Protein 1
Amino acid sequence: MANPNDSLHNDPRGLAQGGEAAHEAPLPPEESARLALLAECHIMDTVAERDFDDLTILASQICGTPIALISLVDEARQWFKSRVGLEATETPRRLAFCAHAILEPGKLLVVPDATKDRRFAENELVTGELGIRFYAGAPLVMEDGMALGSLCVIDRQPRELSASQRTALEALARQVVSQIQLRRQNVALLHARSERELFFTLQITMFCIVGTDGFFKQLNPTFGETLGYTTGELLASSFLSFVHPDDVAATLAEVDWPSHGIRTREFVNRYRCKDGSYRWLSWRTAPSPEGLLYAAARDITEAKRAEDKLRALSELRRGILGSAVHCIIATTPEGLITEFNPAAERMLGYKAEDMIGHLTPAIIHDPEEVVARAAEFSAELGRTIEPGFEVFVAKSRLRLPNEHEWFYVRKGGSRFPVRLTITALWDGPGKIVGFLGIATDITKRKYAEARLIESEKRFREAIEYSAIGMALVGLDGRWMKVNHALCAIVGRSAEELLRGKFQDITHADDIDEDMAQVQALFEGKIDHFQREKRYLHGEGRIVWVMLAVTLVHDADGKPLHYVAQLDDITERREAAERMKASLAEKETLLKEVHHRVKNNLQVITSLLELQSASLSDPVLRARFREAQDRVRAMALIHEGLYRSGNLAAVDFGVHVRKLVASLLRSYSTGAVPIAFHAETDEVQLDIDVAVPLSLIVNELVTNACKHAFAGGRGGTLHLIFQAREADMLLLSIGDDGPGLPPGFQWEKSPSLGLKVVRILVSQIGGRIGMPRPSEARFEIIFPRNRKSANPT
């Protein structure tokens, strides 16, 4: 079987110079300076070195690839300082994957399948015997920001790297850079040996020479300037006396080299300053034959702080984009896609790697919609706006609202409506550096709106021609619409009724009860009411009716009007028949109410999610998330009621498992998942107990996720929901986390979540306690029905 390396091994330049390069990489912006820096390092065409080979071997083993290279790119070729799994020492630059990697020094270049990447699909290294499929290259970025080449791993099979492999590859690349920079410094030291004193004096890097007795023998001024000591103070003490106590053992292990024959080493530790603070120093050291230790250190305190902050922000950004339920697409000012989150992949059917770098309108937006909006905005502005991304640019420059109902086009050509918000990203006054688009699929909402319009039409027709009395009543009690049957029941004309209120024809003894029920309905204490009452007939007699009333809300949950149904029950037989019809209609309307309440709560959750996406303050984002969880907990109750055959109660044992599972999925963002152990009985609870109990579960589980499982720490959440004697129930929620701090008094905690829990437990007539104060476990005992709760 032919060796895939033969064609490279036999050709010292890597491949025959003939052939056509597919998508040859452009030159970096500062190519001349980069080539000068590469020459200055004196590394090209040098012999193999163990320090570099060890890093290449580590990269191959960590990433699980047969090939790993340290590649340096000069004017015409890429040369391999170290290589694993490849005999060739170089290839032409026009074929080099690494020539692409150095174009973005701060970014890992990953090519999962080169045959599907337009830059490399026709590359001879891909189509030839070597058969490259997978490539991942971490640029070798020097201190001045220029990339000399890359540490890359290669496979002949398509694949991906895990997050930990990416991190390790980038870390190894930094070690390669450190070795190159150390070589560069050592060369400079050799060239300037005769001027060492001047070198020590002028260097901004901290330099020192340490004797075998552990004392400094020589220091440059930068050393004292960085730490705040005089040279005399530093020379008078062992270098270990300045090292942070936690770093002493590791430092001793690093500097005990002559006995091990190690020539150079790099490590990081903390040095105490004269003011008592500590600075992080990055060391490169080398022993001399005389037993002295030559060391160079850089103050990396600010870099470490910036690195930690950048890492946290990067993790936050990835978490937000990954967990967002909305389609999020970021673009350049010209419309080239730079970010494409998982929700966008699911919504549009494209992979992020296939979309980044493409023009948004040509791929995603409905062309007809783009043309129509361009014409619409041209008319508003009084000048011609060309169809395309200029529509967004023009509106953003004028600071005009950029929220629209738009149409997207999925992969495959199907179009669907979205609610699209375009936010311009500004870099200084007047300069747009990009756009952030957040889209929500509103297909179901648009369908629901159309159904609602049709339903409203049929509903009004049903009111008009219904055989029972029906009416729409305003929030002030005025008749808004009445049907013929109602007029016949009360013996009055529609014109007469529409001039007054329902109280005008209500029997005096029934008005107070009516008003109490209407007030409770308006305040949300009840979602409908039904009662027998008396109206004054136009002929002066009393008419007994069965009255059913429901409050109708708009999409935002704002009350609109009441829907009233009246059935004449003056004659008992007719009353019984009409009562059945009214009951069936009432159940239909009640189920619709639960459905709409659930939908409205979901709309609120989506609005909170959309609003929180624009917040930069993590505390505010956390508050929004807590609000979302509470609304979602209530929505699940209404969802259960809507889907259940019992519109008055819900199986809370089943419901609480779904609720907790939903919360844990939301908070399980770490590498270790949160386990869930539940013991629940089948217990039917009325909605007025199930809703507050759901909110209690939401608060306690959320607290556990935020405190017991913080920082990606895994563990198990334990939940017990059981029926006890005398119609009492037990709810127990705990975790195996680190527990509560000593002296913690949950009864007096200022936490909003615990305040809500205390209020809700009182509301359902229960009592709450912690059997073991040091253990994060709450037990709540409460009656099955609120009617049996102690009113005190």
Protein 2
Amino acid sequence: MGTVVSGMVLAAVVTAFVLAVPRLRAHAERRARTIVLAAESLRALSRGDYLRRSALDAWRGRGHDRAQRRLGPVGRALLDPALRKASDEAARMLVDPEAWADQENEKFVEGQLAVLGNWFENRLPHPLTAAQRRAVLVDEDANLVIAGAGAGKTSTLLARIAYLIEERGESPDRILVLAFNASVADELEDRILAMGLPSPEISTFHAKGFAVLGEAEGRKPAVSSLASDNRALRSLLQSEFERTMADPRRRKAFARWWVRFRVSPEDLEGCDTPDERLRREQSFGLRTLTGVRVASIAEVKVADWLTLQGITWEHEKRYPFAPPTSTHRDYTPDFYLPDHDLWLEVWSCDRAEVDFPPQIDREAYAESMRWKRELHQTHGTHLVEVFQDDVWGPDLDGVLERAIPDHPATDSDASGRPDAVPTLSTIRSGASPFVALLSTFLRLYRAGGWTRDTVARRVRTDRDRAFLEIFWPFLTRYEFELQSEEKIDFDEMLIRAAALAADGRYEGGYRYILVDEFQDTSRARMLLIEALRGERSNCRVFAVGDDWQSIYRFAGSDVAYFADGEKHLGPTARTILPDTFRLESDVAALSTRFVLRNPAQVAKKLHPRRETRRGPGVSLHLHGPNGEREVAQRLMDEVAAEGEGTRLLVLARYNHRLGILKELVVPGGLEVRASTVHRAKGLEADTVILLGLDAGSFGFPTEIRDDHVLELLLEGDEALSNAEERRLFYVALTRTRTRVHILADARNASPFAEELGGEGYAQWVEVRGTGSVRHRCPNCAGMTITRVEGSHGPFWACSHYPACHGRLPTCPSCREGVLAFPFGRTRGAVAQCSACRHGTTVCPKCVAGVLVERSGPYGRFTGCTGWRPDGSGCDFTRDGATPVEG
């Protein structure tokens, strides 16, 4: 009976399946045809052309991508073979539409390369490289062409224009070319006409902005001199700063930011050595508002607080009651306040006298503090003591107000005392760094099209808030001046033009926008590009640039737009042009390694078109004090005699360093051009001489630090120290066709000079001249020990003194050289003379001095050079003569 039932069930199932087959086949066929149609619609997007990602996204938006699921095995089995094969192929294609599009685009590019091979060989004076040809053909929504120095970006731009007009049949009036200055725009137009092409619209950003305003508003407003004349802007800001000083409330806000926030503890964090921290302090400037140079930022803060409270002070006035002594220098306290008849010391330790900087001799410093206090106590003079935790804490105002008798009230509205107002003439020059910061911040604010609300929303710290409280009145004054003149600035023009275009009041109708020097794009320029582009699917952007040469951050350029172009331009293809027609192999390899020390830069390897012909491509010339002119003259004569081209480019970080050229004699037949590195961008010469690779505020890299408040107006923060200075140095290196000569003071070489002189660059750099006569300081670990001529003869001390007490002993053998200690010295180590190479054992007790022979009442013995005649210092001794280490 069970067998009969089972058979009946099976028969019913078979019957049901047979009856359902037509329906299942119809469903499978509909599903298969849907998959095939979706694939056909995807193929239709390309039509043998480049398939842009925006078109693919639109296809997805119509729901075609939902058809990509394959049929099951039963459904496939029910299809006829032809439909099954077509469905399977379509399903494979739809699994990853992006990958399929990439393959099709590669086929398109390869096909065009084959068809247009002769065109690429002969259309320009020189054949295009393989990378240049690809850059011309890629037709994504945005194509970012990353060109190394001398890689032929202008030729690529010209070839792209010719390709669009001649091969794609684009109308020139549908093409817009945006350049950054008029000379480049004129050059592009001349070269296009020389190629026999009808010229597309070629314009600078500013000219295009004016054109948009003229068409949309019927007038082109005049531009204020405040926009084009830095002196005029500085004069306006200086005038407003004087108003700030005369207004009690605004002066109080300025004092709060300037003294408390301008340099904060966070600014000095992250330093690996005391030397690095001291240099960091110096980078903020050690001059007070009144122009007096002091020893530390702590002293700057105290001095400027006094000045802003209207308190007269003198720096390091000789204390009149200190008796002459052989063990102490003349006593000169940090500050003397004549109106209060008190002396003020800013100690280098905390109030508990526990935390001392590692680079000072703690015992000697503490003994000096005791001696000074005793002097004041003995002679009845008033000493105010300020400690590091006072300076860097939140209540420096309160500490000084409580310590200074008859101090004018901080709220001068209440006191009304005229003596609480600082003399403007005494701080005018000292305030110039602040006026420069205001100028830069104002330029960035205007270039970004920011509003007060948008900037306020980006505030992160109390420091930011304090600065903005000061800044807004300066912005109000600037905007009032523009309104009273009935004029605008360039940035307002760009922002207004972008807004008009975005609102549809200007129809450019462009299908292609080509942008030169894209790495220098500012927020205002990016807004104009986006507005002129309108709907991305109808207009493509072709941008050429090199993020390694982004050097105009101070003027509003933001390399973040280059690094994150997709965020603003949408789907973006990136094409690298690695071949450099200008550089020889040594300079190409060295400059690449140098700039890529910044991991944020786009990595690319330059392929030089020729090897370095003779010797290293870079020479580092170390000279003595005031020796730069002599070396520069010798190099000029050598370049002329060797016949390595006739064009010589002399560069410097700052314009004033080029003044030595007035003292040089230019050899016959040599064409010499001088320029700052910023102005040299785009230039090239046979040989380059780079002056002034010294450390300091006006060295290279400059030690003048950008204030963190500028980050409020920039899209991205650069983590690497000296990131833009490194790019600027790259620009300097890559102006040459053959050789670069770099000049640096051996006693004050900059970090860049030290880096190039290191082992990492030895294969490309020839070091000429005397080696650095600096030695590593045992206290701060910097290369800061130099020879000093003292009243009792020469000695070797740290150039950071008095902030660092590091010293090295003079060689006991030749009495000329310095005993240079091995870094990370240990007991038993040997210090070796820099002149005669004599070796002397390091003192096992203090590890700061060395052991030398001495004579005493009981005969010869060995003692530490750290011992002093007054019995202080290291007292290590042992019987017998000092072992000579060789």
